[in-house]
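Usage

Read records sequentially. Each one opens with the input sequence:
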Amino acid sequence: MLIRRRVDFERRMRRLPPLTLAIVGVLAAIFLVEVGLEVLDSPEALLLAGALAREAVLAGEWWRVVTAIFLHGGVDHIVGNAVALFVLGMVCEHAFGRVQFAFLFVASGIAGSIVSTLSSPGPSVGASGAIFGLQGAAIVLFRVHRERLLVRDRRIGLVLIVWAVYSIAQGVVTPYIDNGAHLGGLLGGILIARRLHPVVLEPPPDQVRVRIRRQGWATLAVLVAAAVGWLLR
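and closes with the structure output:
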């Protein structure tokens, strides 16, 4: 009988994951622009910046389901998301590789935006839907491959549980933050993760590499299209 060796998940995991840090940097830079342009002062300004709003999306401004992911409603909002993104990004970028991680982040964010649009008129903003998607993907990874993965630092799970409770509480008491996006992102991440290849366990075969490249191009195409839609609004 073939016995597979358990893989130490944290071995060779980068403590400074490059794509995760790049996304955190982009979110922080955009938030500074929001503050400088006084976007947070009114719902109208936030909508003009690209916030999610049901009426606007149904009117054809579909790009808001993407742009809203990169906006935030306050200092607590951006700081909490940045910390959680760093931790979960470290996990998911290591587990799935940069291309699949980028696809997971954007697709989960869009799933969160769609559920948010269905459940709330808006406006709402934030990357927490995408981050809940990363958490859902991490749950699937460690559940499906629990016999093959060795995780030494159990504190990560506690940190993420605390963040999830904090984010949901923010969604109850803070304007512009929508728990519908949290639920949609989580469900999206769980579903998407089942189609991702865990590169931490083994290199992807040729046919999977082709699929990963397609995911990368699809992610880039969505981001570019949303940016063009925002510019031409």
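Summary fields computed downstream for this record:
- Residues 12-231 form a domain with the Rhomboid-like fold fold (CATH 1.20.1540.10).
- The chain has a mean pLDDT of 85.
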